[in-house]
Amino acid sequence: MRMSVATGQNAATQKVVAILGLYCRASVRSTAADRSAHFTRYNGGVSAATTSPVSSETSAHSRPYTLWQRFLLWLITWAGFLAIRVIGPTLKLAVSFEESGPAGIEMRPMILAFWHSCIFPATYVWRSLQIRVLSSDSFDGEWTGRIIRKFGFVKVRGSSSRGAVRALLGMRRELEQGWAVAFTIDGPRGPRFVAKPGPVLLARATGAPMVAFHIAVEKAWILNTWDRSMIPKPFSRALMRVSRQIVVPADTDDSQKEKFHGELQAALERVREFAEANVGRVGSAEFPVGKS
Known about the structure:
With about 290 residues, the protein is an alpha/beta fold. The chain has helices at about 5-25, 55-60, 65-85, 120-125, 140-150, 165-175, 200-205, 255-280; strands at about 90-95, 110-115, 130-135, 155, 180-185, 210-215, 220, 230, 235-240.
């Protein structure tokens, strides 16, 4: 169902009010020190945020906004950035990989898929890796893109509902240049926890493996949005589970494509269930906390 711009702005305003309220209550300090190592199978550290350059693909299709919309974009962007930058370093994070998973989160090229609800912690954990992220031309897509660029992501315009062909071509170019790409796989508007088929098409066209992940948070504020977005509470334990790599052969026909789509859906469900079941064990010998 299509939503009006006004409806999108109201939802965005509700989000920023929630984020600002949480930010004001979170009296924690952000570390200013950059770290050069990334999480691997052995739970090393993750690097701090840097601002990514904007490619011509991301800037060529800007749309005009009213003065009020521009103000909202500025407010939401900085509120979101500050909330992630303040809360992210306090998380007690562990990373767990399935057998045959990637060697580390810095591997590329690969096609990452995750649920929209964990976009807040994912933005912090995967920062500074120049990952290409599909983001729509909507008002929500604009402020989301502005926030993630501040954490070292590169926005590729498009969505699964509008501009899908352009979006997939843009993501294919990035993969062929050796970059990792990422999809909030049930976005931009759901249905929640239902995977879209775009990554399967890209994996078949490029040979890059698909990898699903989920980040469970022990304590979080849950927003009243379609995806039930979670904002971690400061100092909460978090567990990221990363799936095995799923390779789609180039000669896969349309009937076989559904099989790989089903594998991706199963992987997304599997890593979510594992992370949610084990997040309470973060800090144990099995799930050691890495540096952040």
